[in-house]
Amino acid sequence: MAPAPPAPVMPPTVIVTGGAGFIGRNLTQKLLDGGLRVVSLDNASDVKRKLMLQDIVADKSQFIDVQGDARSREIVSQLLRQYEPRAVVHLAAEIGVDQSIEDPLGSVEPNVAGALNMLQCCEIYRYIKSHQQQPFKVLIASTDQVYGSAIAGTTSAFTEEDSLYPSSPHSASKVAVEALALSYFRTFELPVVISRCATTYGPFQSPNHLIPATVSRCNDAHPLHVYGDGFYNRQWLHVSDHVEALMLLLKHGEPGEIYNVGTKWFSTVGNIVGDIRRMCRSKSEIVNVTDRPGHDRWLTIRSDKIESLGWRPRVPLSRGLSSTVSWYMARREWVRQIERLEEFNRQRVGLGRHNMGQLAIAQVEQ
Ligand SMILES: NC(=O)c1ccc[n+]([C@@H]2O[C@H](COP(=O)([O-])OP(=O)(O)OC[C@H]3O[C@@H](n4cnc5c(N)ncnc54)[C@H](O)[C@@H]3O)[C@@H](O)[C@H]2O)c1
């Protein structure tokens, strides 16, 4: 009998949860370009995943798209056993701040339970594989929102040592996820690394976020909505710089450590909307709408720690914004298709106390 052909040697594998999301989709392509095999786990529908992932350039055997929930012990442990990854990047999360104000439990529970399940499955997997002494890392995506707002106009940005003061149920859920991740590092020595990235923009972001939403409204000649007075200052991080930071942390991030990832490119939300209006040559009116309760005025972080590892943001806001606007202008049909799938498509939610009266009436009537 002829000997069986040797099994194909697979390149190292990375599991990306939330791989069909904005950052996950961009990270997935970068990992594939680097010759790695990627398993994406995302609970989005088949239609949404197809829209997000259809342009992924990869050999079929290199990219595995799995529909499933990060909260499922069965699915996550099966993927770990089957694909034996060198790393897990946990991006899966409900990220809408307004949605978290509208439905705190519906937003916080998936984030906390999803992260806890990932950590637990990773810990068991690592224990089973410990004899192989393969490198393994769990990278958890957190956010600059965990610090809450700095005093408006301050020049002192938050460092990783500063205390956390989240303003929304969403930001609070990320604090909880961080705490769980660090507890797994301390108790089980699970090699977790945490990124706290600034407000990210670029291609493949869902159209219910500021930049794609504003481009869509310009295209449709609809009024452009700005929350409150629009003076909400952010550090703007292009998704390619965000992805580069995650790639670096996968290689060189120290287990148990947290890394801020910000830029020097500040702008207020109001100015961003004005810039997009100009770029789109739109005549839409800018309308100040009811503010978000607890809205962080000033998100500002220092990134010295990750910069000491060699990371620098490369895409200035002026260049990144104009290329991003062009990207969405050229993909109107794609945006429309994704918009149709959004639960809260162009619908304002999360007014907190402003709509408590309505909620109370609804409860009494039940
Ligand atoms: N976008 C930003 O500005 C930004 C900034 C800093 C950090 N982050 C973090 O990066 C991560 C990804 O953010 P994004 O902007 O790509 O969001 P996104 O909403 O575009 O992607 C998240 C993906 O996770 C999936 N998902 C949600 N819950 C899941 C679950 N329980 N199981 C499986 N899949 C699930 C969603 O279907 C979605 O595709 C989040 O953890 C977010 O907090 C985002």
Describe the structure.
- There is one protein chain.
- The chain is of the alpha/beta class and 366 residues long.
- The chain has one domain: NAD(P)-binding Rossmann-like Domain (Rossmann fold).
- It contains 13 helices and twelve strands.
- The strands form three sheets. Strands 3-2-1-4-5-6-10 form a seven-stranded parallel sheet, with helices on both faces. Strands 7-9-11 form a three-stranded mixed sheet.
- α6 (169-188) links the parallel β5 and β6 (192-197).
- α1 (22-33) packs across α8 (239-252), α5 runs parallel beside α6 (169-188) and α7 (210-219) packs parallel to α9 (269-279).
- The chain starts with 12 loop residues before the first strand and ends with a helix.
- 44% of the residues are buried.
- The mean pLDDT is 92.
- The structure holds nicotinamide-adenine-dinucleotide.
- Residues 17-18, 20-24, 41-44, 69-71, 91-95, 110, 114, 141, 143, 197, 199-200, 206 line the site of nicotinamide-adenine-dinucleotide (NAD).
